Amino acid sequence: MKTERIGSRGLLFSFEDPYLTNVYIIFGKEHVFVLDTFLGNDSMKAVHQLIDSEGYEDKQLVIFNSHADYDHYWGNGAFKDATIVGHEHCKERIVDEGEASLAKYADHQRGEIELIPPNRTFKETLSFEAEGVKFFHSPGHTLDSSSCIDERDGVLFVGDNVESPIPYLNHVNFDQYIRSLESYLELDWKYIIAGHDPLLEKSDLIKQNIDYLRKFRDWSLNIDSFSVTKLHRHVEHNLKTIKDELMRSNHKHALMKHLEELEKYIA
Ligand SMILES: [Zn+2]
Q1: How far, in Å, is the centroid of ligand 1 from the Cα of 55?
Q2: What tens digit of pLDDT does each residue of 180-217 get?
Q3: Which of 6, 86, 107, 258 is most buried (most C-beta within 10 Å)?
């Protein structure tokens, strides 16, 4: 696990086991904001210790879950008395899918896990104006995906909406996803923190992600140019996950043609 100071009041925790995952802390005037909680109470011990050692143990804790995939909220139980902020669909997903995620990803558990959903939900935005911290709905990677901007330091936390080399898709929501990514380009930021990538200071990856989504939507992907990792994620995660939804949509014929084309790459 690595830590890095960002701007005037931020601290980035980058966990490396079982895979790179970022948790970000904003030390506000009256609040300490913890963005995502990773894989269980053990993984959040270092976060607690750091808040104490910085002298912030008496401030109000505000936890944020960027979305309800297990690796972003399993550590909520380490912050029992805190305000836990999340989109209303994030709360629903944790209630509906939490138990199944525990069974499915048991070997990723780091310490005790209590499945605690957000206790302060929002639909569009939720602002802590005096602190210059704003949470907003940004559906894409999942329908509940939300982001946070620290307006003072220009730090944008985007959960798993931005990912290299291409994002993980879970729905046929290309246009909605593209709109969320384009909204990031309109914001004033110096740093972007994505769930599973190193700290970003440029918009290249956002633009590459938009390009993939547009070309996928229009069935104009150039598979020849794909790296092994990109092809694997496109075929083994994205196509498999959204195949049924595509088959029920007007993408059906284009999908069937695409799958035929892909056979030469997979064989
Ligand atoms: Zn994730």
Answers
A1: 30
A2: 999 999 999 999 999 999 999 999 999 999 999 999 99
A3: 86
Cα 41 to Cα 182: distance, rounded to the nearest angstrom:
35
Distance 147 CA to ligand 1 centre (A): 13
Domain boundaries for CATH 3.60.15.10 within the chain? 2-218
Burial of 240 (0-12, 13-18, 19+ CB in 10 A): exposed
pLDDT tens track for 122-132: 999 999 999 99
98 CA distance to ligand 1 middle (Å): 15
**CATH fold for the domain made of 2-218:** Metallo-beta-lactamase; Chain A (3.60.15)
CA of residue 3 to ligand 1 center, whole Å: 19
What's the CA-to-centroid distance between 71 and ligand 1, angstroms? 5
